[in-house]
């Protein structure tokens, strides 16, 4: 569990940094999965839910992203479905448990463009409660000019904005953030995460964050576990174009096969990542 000072940091800033969260061997094993995944080689035989960059199809200038690679790759699954991720997300958000909402595999080589600054909960109107907690894990040592993730300190206390105008490769990654900051009557205090490979950052679903272009010479790779409350259900009428396909007729309940519980306070987790 996190210490009182880590919890206080999260409550104040909307994010908390934990170095050494992923061990070196696992960092190497995860890095080795990027080439096959983005080349369309799926170990389990199942395609990920979103495959936003494909080798040979998409611009080399775009940041590469796959969502729900855990369904396609057992190494990714063993990290993003970690029980302690669910436990920490629950502790920070006051949930009785946490289940995976989606994962992201993000690969930003030198020269790749920005991801627009946004709030994750702007995209969660398809679930109730529409709350998200995220564990972002870096697989490379990060540098401010290498397109690392950046957080706006204290912005989890701002109002929820609508989805941003351009997420992938926007001309101005800060455009929507600046509007939100002026609506809140504050100047955004932007904090780039400069940390060694294996560091995790847990962030609140309302914390504004994004990442600028990689203008350095090194790779910037990360894996991300986005969690929701284990009590979350599908919204009656709002849909996600991708994820509402997993809603069963006549039920709003989340299916354990598609949104597994990572941790539950009474310890009744149904699956382990290996199953
Ligand atoms: O890694 C990045 O550049 C952005 C990741 C992100 O948006 C997230 O973890 O919610």
Task: Describe the model.
The structure is a single chain. This protein has 275 residues and is of the alpha+beta class. The longest helix is centred in the N-terminal third of the chain and has 11 residues, at 83-93. The chain has helices at residues 4-13, 24-31, 34-38, 74-80, 83-93, 175-184; strands at 15-18, 50-51, 64-67, 97-108, 115-118, 127-128, 133-138, 149-152, 190-192, 200-204, 209-211, 220-229, 233-234, 261-264. The model has no long low-confidence stretch (mean pLDDT 95). 2-oxoglutaric acid (AKG) binds next to β4, β7, β11 and β12. 2-oxoglutaric acid binds next to β4, β7, β11 and β12.
Tally of extended strands?
14
What is the count of distinct domains? Answer: 1
CATH topology: Jelly Rolls
**Architecture (CATH level 2) name:** Sandwich
Which structural class do you get from the secondary structure elements?
alpha+beta
In percent terms, what proportion of residues is strand?
Answer: 15-25%
Distance between the terminal alpha carbons, to the nearest Å? 25 Å
- Elements, N to C (H/E): HEHHEEHHEEEEEHEEEEEE
Provide keyphrases for this structure.
Jelly Rolls, eight-stranded antiparallel sheet, alpha+beta, 275 residues, 19% helix, globular
Short description:
The chain has 275 residues and is α+β, with helices and mostly antiparallel strands. It has 6 helices and 14 strands. The longest helix is centred in the N-terminal third of the chain and has 11 residues, at 83-93.
């Amino acid at each position: 569990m996190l210490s009182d000072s880590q919890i206080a940091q999260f409550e104040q800033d909307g994010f908390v940094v934990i170095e050494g969260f992923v061990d070196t061997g696992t960092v190497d094993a995860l890095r080795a999965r990027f080439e096959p995944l983005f080349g369309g080689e799926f170990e389990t035989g199942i395609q990920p839910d979103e495959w936003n960059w494909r080798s040979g199809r998409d611009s080399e200038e775009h940041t590469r992203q796959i969502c729900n690679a855990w369904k396609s790759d057992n190494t990714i699954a063993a990290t993003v479905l970690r029980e302690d991720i669910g436990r920490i997300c629950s502790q920070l958000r006051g949930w009785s448990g946490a289940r995976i909402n989606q994962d992201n595999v993000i690969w930003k080589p030198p020269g790749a463009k920005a991801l627009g600054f946004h709030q994750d909960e702007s995209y969660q109107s398809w679930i109730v409660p529409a709350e998200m907690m995220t564990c972002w894990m870096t697989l490379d040592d990060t540098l401010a000019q290498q397109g690392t993730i950046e957080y706006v300190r204290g912005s989890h206390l701002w109002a929820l904005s609508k989805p941003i105008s351009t997420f992938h490769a926007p001309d101005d990654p800060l455009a929507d953030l600046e509007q939100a900051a002026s609506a809140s009557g504050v100047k955004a205090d932007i904090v780039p995460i400069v940390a060694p490979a294996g560091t995790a950052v847990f962030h609140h679903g309302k914390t504004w964050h994004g990442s600028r272009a990689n203008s350095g010479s090194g790779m910037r790779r990360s894996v991300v576990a986005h969690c929701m409350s284990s009590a979350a259900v599908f919204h009656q009428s709002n849909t996600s174009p991708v994820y509402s396909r997993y809603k069963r007729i006549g039920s709003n309940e989340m299916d354990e096969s598609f949104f597994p519980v990572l941790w539950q306070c009474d310890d009744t987790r149904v699956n382990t990542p290996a199953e």
